[in-house]
Amino acid sequence: MTSISPRSAPLATGSFTVVRSSRERRWSTPRYSSAPLHNPVAAEVIDAARAALTGVPQAAAFDSAFHATLPREAYVYALPYEWFRDWGYRRYGFHGLSVTWSVERAAALLGRADLGVVVAHLGAGCSVSAVWRGSSVGTSMGMTPLEGLVMATRAGSVDPGILLAAQRDHALDLRALEDTLEHRSGLLGISGRTGEMRELLALASTDDRAALAIAVFERWAAAAIAAAATALPRLDAIVFTGGIGENAASVRSGIVRRLASIGVPPVDDATVDGDHVVVAGPVAVLVVVAREDVVIAREVSAILA
Question: Does a structural domain hold residue 90?
Answer without folding.
Answer: no
